[in-house]
């Protein structure tokens, strides 16, 4: 059950007063929340129409990092026949600035994707490297895994085991994803035991963290808590991340429920961009701006490099900038409210000036 004013927040505020706690040890007993910005990958992969040019994607990545983001998904090495928008990810990696200490993750679905990435890294040897992290992904239902990866869950795990091994052997960090952790667009309600088993296997493969995806964006906070309680029977909550889409408008509430359950890493997307091509009808990820706003004046601190956090006002501007490049408005509620307030303030200033 949601207990946002009780035990976990008290623990969080107690740890806030402990100066010996560092960002590096941020885990479920800490009040530090890590954001993984997935806008350039999950956010853009579902865009219809022509492929967004790599220079625009690279500029998005750079702007996000300038706003304080330290973990950003820069793209995917997947089949362009399956996800055309992710073609050109190699170019994005080469064009973006590579800041030390920032993790620019890339999704790989199979050995081919990893091999292509390793070839790029060896041809562009530089310090720091273009990326130090890959994400591998599977799901909690066979139907979704078939739609997304053209194989069963078991086959995907068999395929991903050597991919993770090779990535680790080449000095890359490996993050894992389990999709459809609450509901599947093809088979409905998901068995949380299956989520637990798959998350456990990903961890055993060497993933430093497993992100739990409510791909459909249908979960409620109570379901999120129930699901995390089941998964954390086998996987320490400090190794889990929450990844919520906002189809039914519950994503911010689900983030708070995940934090209340002890999770301290949240995936989010600037401007609320996104959607999975294989989850029909699902909308974008929870907007990064909305998460940052919801955690203001709370016992939680969001980690980042802009004065120790991520700058909300800058993120709102980026959300508007990229949305307008895509020909629409930002869908972040907070981004829209910030812009409306600014417009109001400017109008009032203008009125005051005209009275002088
Ligand atoms: C895994 C495959 C390739 C299997 O697809 P397949 O058709 O079974 O693969 P295949 O081995 O038969 O290859 C088919 C063609 O793709 C090529 N190919 C094969 N692999 C690659 C590669 N890595 N990069 C580039 N090309 C590749 C391969 O060379 C061949 O080319 P052809 O001979 O026809 O010209 C395909 O299903 C695929 O790419 N799937 C990716 C789907 C995807 O990216 N989905 C979105 C990301 S997951 C997500 O969004 C959820 C998440 C993470 O955000 C969390 C959440 O919200 O739940």
UniProtKB/TrEMBL annotation:
Pfam families: HMGL-like (PF00682). The keyword Chloroplast does not apply. It comes from the Eukaryota. PANTHER family: HYDROXYMETHYLGLUTARYL-COA LYASE. Its EC number is 4.1.3.4. GO terms for molecular function: hydroxymethylglutaryl-CoA lyase activity; metal ion binding. It comes from Leucocoprinus birnbaumii. This is hydroxymethylglutaryl-CoA lyase. Pathway: Metabolic intermediate metabolism; (S)-3-hydroxy-3-methylglutaryl-CoA degradation; acetoacetate from (S)-3-hydroxy-3-methylglutaryl-CoA: step 1/1. PROSITE patterns: PYR_CT. InterPro entries: Aldolase_TIM, HMGL, PYR_CT. One of its GO terms (biological process) is ketone body biosynthetic process. Residues 1-23 are annotated as: Disordered. Keywords: Lyase, Metal-binding. Residues 33-316 form the Pyruvate carboxyltransferase domain.
């Amino acid at each position: 059950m949601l207990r946002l004013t009780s035990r976990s927040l008290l623990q969080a505020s107690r740890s806030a007063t402990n100066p010996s706690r560092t960002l590096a040890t941020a885990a479920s007993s800490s009040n530090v929340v890590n954001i993984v910005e997935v806008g350039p990958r999950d956010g853009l992969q579902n865009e219809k129409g022509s492929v967004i040019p790599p220079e625009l994607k690279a500029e998005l990545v750079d702007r996000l990092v300038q706003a304080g983001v330290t973990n950003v998904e820069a793209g995917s090495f997947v089949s362009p026949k399956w996800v055309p928008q992710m073609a050109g990810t190699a170019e994005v990696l080469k064009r973006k600035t590579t800041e030390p200490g920032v993790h620019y993750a890339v999704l790989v679905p199979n050995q081919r994707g990893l091999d292509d990435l390793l070839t790029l890294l060896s041809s562009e040897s530089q310090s720091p490297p273009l990326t130090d992290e890959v994400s591998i992904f599977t799901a909690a239902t066979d139907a979704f895994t078939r739609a997304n990866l053209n194989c069963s869950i078991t086959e995907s795990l068999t395929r991903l085991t050597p991919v993770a091994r090779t990535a680790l052997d080449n000095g890359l960090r490996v993050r894992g994803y389990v999709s459809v952790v609450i509901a599947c667009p093809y088979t409905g309600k998901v068995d949380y035991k299956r989520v637990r088993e798959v998350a456990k296997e990903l961890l055993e493969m060497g993933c430093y963290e497993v992100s739990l995806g409510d791909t459909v964006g249908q979960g409620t906070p109570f379901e999120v808590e129930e699901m995390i309680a089941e998964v954390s029977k086998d996987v320490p909550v400090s190794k889990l991340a929450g990844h919520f889409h906002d189809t039914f408008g519950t994503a911010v509430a689900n983030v708070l429920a995940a934090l209340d359950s002890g999770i301290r890493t949240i995936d989010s997307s600037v401007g609320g961009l996104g959607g999975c091509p294989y989850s029909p009808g699902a909308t974008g990820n929870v907007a990064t701006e909305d998460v940052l706003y919801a955690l203001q004046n709370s016992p939680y601190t969001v980690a980042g490099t802009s004065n120790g956090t991520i700058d909300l006002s800058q993120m709102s501007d980026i959300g508007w900038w990229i949305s307008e490049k895509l020909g629409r408005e930002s869908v972040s509620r907070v981004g829209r409210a910030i812009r409306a307030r600014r417009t109001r303030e400017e109008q009032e200033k203008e009125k005051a000036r005209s009275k002088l």
